[in-house]
Amino acid sequence: MSLDEQLKRCLAALGDLLDWVAEAERRLGSEQPLSEEVQPLSFQADEHQTLNEDIIEHQQPVLQTVQMAQQIMEQYASKLRPADQTKLEDLSSELKGRYDTVYVQSQTRQNRLQGAIPELQKIEEDRVGMNEWLTTAERNLAQVKRNIGYDLDTLQEQYNRQVAFNEEVMTQGADVRFLNMNGQRFLDKEKVGGFQISSGIKTQWLVHCFKLLVIIKALKL
């Protein structure tokens, strides 16, 4: 194959791959911030996996094309026109640099998505459990206020139940703090990873904390 044919083939391959990289960059840039709900987050993971696999599959073609350009420049160093030499150098360098950036960004998001799903599932389970307990606690507190016994035995029984309830409230307070710490770590990971996440999760935790504080104040703990 003549030099002109090799050069034409190499430049065409570089151009095609640069067009592909541009499309991969566009798709990466259009991906939404990580969702704070498990089902949409799973959909994001599946959608990104398709893009990530495409990027991985292009690793070998990119490497081979960059090597082809390098071989042409080395083999025909004395015959290449300066303009063609510069074009090969610039396009192969641009392709490698942009591909490496796309690859790292895609892998980073892939890893965060895979790790975020089980984390978010655990946080959601804890939140639902806490919400159920708060609902029961509020109902029990309202019942205690309405039904105060008049004889000694009833009062003693209600007192014992109240003491146990007070201890349970304080235990749940520690659980809420632990849930908050886990959730905050999740949010901090997204910030460190360069991702964004809405404030919905944090708002839910604050609601739980507020409800618990209302119960504690009513019990005067």
Q: How do the strands and helices of this protein lay out in sequence?
A:
Layout (H helix, E strand, L loop, with lengths): L2 H28 L7 H20 L1 H17 L6 H65 L5 H41 L7 H20 L2
Overview in brief:
This protein is mostly helical and 221 residues long. Helix content is 86%, strand content 0%.
Distance between the termini: 88 Å
Number of strands: 0
Please state the CA-atom Rg, rounded to the nearest Å.
Answer: 31 Å
Number of domains: 2
Would you tell me which CATH topology of the largest domain applies?
Methane Monooxygenase Hydroxylase, Chain G, domain 1
CATH architecture of the largest domain: Up-down Bundle
Q: Could you list the spans in which at least 5 consecutive residues all have pLDDT below 50? A: 190-199, 210-217
Percentage beta strand: under 5%
Largest sheet: none
Shape: rod-shaped
* Mean pLDDT metric: 75
Along the chain, the helix and strand elements come as HHHHHH
Q: Structural class from helices and strands? A: mainly alpha
Number of helices: 6
Question: Which short descriptors sum up this protein?
Answer:
221 residues; mainly alpha; Methane Monooxygenase Hydroxylase, Chain G, domain 1; 2 domains; 86% helix
